[in-house]
Design a protein that fits this description.
With about 200 residues, this protein is an alpha+beta fold. It is about 15% helix and about 35% strand. The strands form 3 sheets. Strands 1, 2, 4, 5, 7, 8 and 11 form a 7-stranded mixed beta sheet that branches. A 4-stranded antiparallel beta sheet has the order 10-9-13-14, with no helix packed on it. A hairpin with a 2-residue loop joins β13 and β14. The longest helix has 9 residues. The protein starts with a strand and ends with a strand.
Amino acid sequence: MKIICIGRNYVEHIKELNSDRPDEPIVFLKPDTSILLDKNPFFIPDFSNDVHHEVEVIIKINRLGKHIDEKFAHKYYDEIGLGIDFTARDVQRELKEKGLPWEKSKAFDGASVVSRTFIKKDKLGDFNNIDFQLFKNGKLQQDGNTRLMIWKIDELISYVSKYFTLKIGDLIFTGTPAGVSKVVENDELKGVLAGEELFSIRVK
C-alpha cells in the first residue's frame, strides 16, 4: 500500500503560504510507516519546532489501474475518508530553499492520520461538493469543500495513474484548504466529513 499526496490543490492555501499556483498537480509519496497508529497520539518530532496540521479528503483505491481515463476514474474508488498530512514546516522550508525533496518534512513516522472510518461514496451525493472541517481544541480551524479543489478527484486519479500503477488499498490525499496552523502539546484535533466526525487525536 502506498500513500500518494497532492500539494497545492486549494487556491486559498496556496495564498496563505505565499506559494505559486502550479500548472499541474504536485505529487509526492509517503511510506505506510508514516500512518499514525489507531488511537495513538501524535508526537511532535524532536527535529522540528513548527509542525502544521493539514486536513485532507482521502480516496481509497479499490481496483488495479494504470493510465486511467478520467471518465472511468469513478470506478476506482467507492469510499472517501479524512486525514491529516502533518508537515514539519521549518524542515520543509529549508529543503525547498535547497531545491531538495520534501519527504523528511512530510513522510516521517506518524505524519499521516487516516480515519478509521471511510464513508461509502453513494452516501455522499455529489462527491465534488463535500464539506469537511478540522476543529482544533473545539474551534473551527480549517473549513473546506471538495468543489474548491483545483483538480477534482477523478482528474487526480487519472493524472496520478499515468506515473504510478494504482493498487487496491492505495490512498490518495487530495490536498488541504486554507487554515493550516502550528500544533503544540495537548492540542486536540478533530476531523469532520459531511457532518460526521471521522477522527480525533491528541498532540503530545
